[in-house]
Design a protein that fits this description.
The complex is a heterodimer of chains A (about 80) and B (about 200). Chain A is mainly α. In chain A, about 75% of the residues lie in helices and about 0% in strands. In chain A, helix 1 crosses helix 2, helix 1 crosses helix 3 and helix 2 packs across helix 3. The longest helix of chain B has 22 residues. The chains are: A mainly alpha (about 80), B mainly alpha (about 200).
């Protein structure tokens, strides 16, 4: 089993989360993150990023745009 | 046993709409219009999203007869909407996109993170540390600055919750390429959040 350093661990994160790593690489990454506070903190903020962006870009449909869409579609269906 | 009247499924409504039932089509529109508008905002801009929204449902209306029940209606709809968004963007003047490489994580010569654990953790608290309107404005801005090759997979995979396989099929990429691009987008956007909360990534 080879030891993983932070820079290599970061490269593996997406594949780790998607479950496509081999068992031995997965175990090596688990072992590194369990011992490395920096990587544990990095993983937290990496995993939080999509959710933060999802929430921050959650646009709602304005009423006037909804009305315009429906009028547009009614006109095209005639 | 309690039996409740279920809403008609998308695929049933699509079949009814294809057979000329306008009310079924309207139900599909009202079920998905908000989601498609949000997707369009994320892939284009709030200015262009209304056009993408109209173009999407017009295309859906015109091609309902070609919809086969072998994929989910929502997958088919998302594919039409994504294409409409990409076409809309192509018709616009090229916006300046930046690699945003300055936000990638940094390591010392041994390959160890340069930040302290506290600094590396901080971006995950961006929503507590920043005003929510300011965060929303910055998030939209940086998404627009992200090169399309990262933006599109990130939006579809992480913001719209499609699977990696669905995103790959939609963008004509290998699943491995989708993972690689989403990963890079996450790294850059994480670093951007870090910068926003006052820590050099």
């Amino acid at each position: 089993m080879t030891d993983i350093v932070c820079v290599a661990g970061v490269d593996l994160l997406m594949d780790y989360l998607e479950g496509v790593l081999t068992d031995d690489v997965r175990a090596a990454l688990d072992a590194h993150v369990a011992e490395c506070q920096r990587c544990a903190a990095f993983v937290d903020s990496y995993c939080a990023t999509p959710g933060l962006f999802k929430h921050a870009t959650d646009a709602s449909l304005p009423d006037d745009i909804q009305r315009a869409l429906r009028a547009f579609l009614r006109a095209r269906r005639r | 046993m309690v039996v409740t009247a279920a809403e008609p499924g998308d695929e049933l409504l699509a079949a009814q709409a294809a057979a000329g039932d306008d009310r079924a089509f309207e139900q599909l529109v009202s079920r998905y219009e908000a989601r498609i508008f949000r997707l369009a905002c994320r892939l284009t801009s709030e200015t262009d999203a209304p056009d993408v929204l109209q173009e999407t449902f017009l295309q859906v209306y015109r091609s309902l007869r070609t919809f086969r029940g072998d994929s989910r209606f929502s997958t088919w709809l998302y594919r039409i909407a994504t294409n409409a968004a990409l076409m809309n963007r192509r018709a616009r003047a090229r916006r300046p996109s930046e690699p945003l490489d300055q936000y990638l994580p940094r390591f010392d010569s041994r390959g160890v993170h340069t930040g302290t654990p506290e600094e590396l953790q901080l971006p995950s608290r961006a929503d507590e540390l920043l005003d929510s309107q300011a965060l929303a404005d910055r998030a939209r801005e940086v998404l627009a600055r992200l090169p399309d090759m990262y933006r599109d997979p990130f939006v579809l995979r992480d913001l719209e919750d499609l699977t990696t396989a669905e995103v790959a099929a939609m963008l004509g990429l290998d699943p491995a390429a989708v993972r690689q691009r989403v990963h890079r987008a996450r790294l850059m956007l994480r670093g951007y959040l870090s910068d926003l909360v006052g820590v050099r990534p």
